[in-house]
Amino acid sequence: MFTTKQSSRLALAALALGAVVAQPAAAAVELLSHRAVYALSLAQSASGMGGVSDVRGGLVMEWRDSCAGAISNQRLGFVASVGDAPGFTYDVRFSSWESPDHKRLRFNVRSFDGGILFEEYQGEASLDEVGGKAAFAKPAGETLALPRGTLFPTEHMVRLIEGARDGEVVVSHDVFDGSGVDGLSRVTAVIGRPITAETAAEGAAVDEMRWPVSLAYHEVTRADDVPTFELTFELSERGVLYDLVLDYGDFALQADLEQLEAFDAPDCP
N or C: which end of the chain has fewer CB within 10 A? Predict the structure, then answer.
């Protein structure tokens, strides 16, 4: 029905938004290191339900700014009902570290079905002036060439946030996110007009800027315009995601923020 590559996209996109707090280029945006907890349900706006009649689950995204780079851990899990047929469970867990200069990415993605590990990707990727390479420890020996101009998720989202602040509408880049041996995608972002929303900060209600954002993931080697996965959300100026929808094609999930915990920034020399 869907793959590790698809299910890890939300976590990867969101980790990048939170991880930019470690990057000098985005320091003025004043994003939070935080832990966000979302409740998952079946999105009524799904273009095709694929027989899925109900979804119960959760998404937890945690990332912390460290002096040595951005550290992230996420987990996406749910139980789905499929009409009169047996339902299914899904559980994907992602962890990563990205260097402050955006040139190195370490990643580990594990997918479970009914508590049984059935897919795992682990490795490290690096970039230079002419391109780069991803080398996998699991599956052992697999490599992936990265073309010149490839971005890792953090730098991609740094540019997305900067683009939103600058009033850009469409931003497109080749991005490697560590989601597998086919984890290189052309990601096209459509950014809407900013809106002002009220949020809680340190026990008080404050206004913050948010942008509606839509991300479409395409296979780099395919010429058609059909995305493999789509993700929409409201992006706050502090790097928090609201009103997420994950569209897998067969069905879509709604992720509603239920809990937000902010972490102190590290005291780096």
Answer: C
Question: How far apart are alpha carbons 135 and 171 in whole angstroms?
Answer: 28
Query: What tokens were used for 187?
Result: 């990601």
| Angle ∠(36,203,233) on CA atoms, nearest 5 | 35
Contact 154, 16 (CB under 8 A): yes
Q: What's 142's DSSP letter?
A: -
Distance CA 134, CA 100 (A): 18
φ/ψ of residue 14, rounded to 5: -70, -35
The per-residue pLDDT for range 102-155, each reduced to its tens digit, is: 899 999 999 998 788 999 999 999 999 999 999 999 999 999 999 999 998 878
Nearest 5°: phi and psi at 25? -60, -30
How far apart are alpha carbons 203 and 192 in whole angstroms? 29
**Closest to 227 in 3D by CA, of 236, 218, 240, 235:** 218
pTM summary value:
0.82
Domain ranges of the chain: 4-104+112-117+149-263
Rounded Cα–Cα distance for residues 182 and 222 (Å): 12
φ, ψ for residue 233 (rounded to 5)? Answer: -170, 170
Distance separating alpha carbons of residues 58 and 99, to the nearest angstrom: 28
Instruction: Summarize pLDDT for 219-251 with one digit per residue, the tens.
Output: 887 767 788 889 999 988 777 889 999 988 888
Q: Which of 265, 241, 12, 237 is nearest to 121 (CA)?
A: 12
Instruction: Please report which helix (H) or strand (E) contains residue 227, including its range.
Output: none
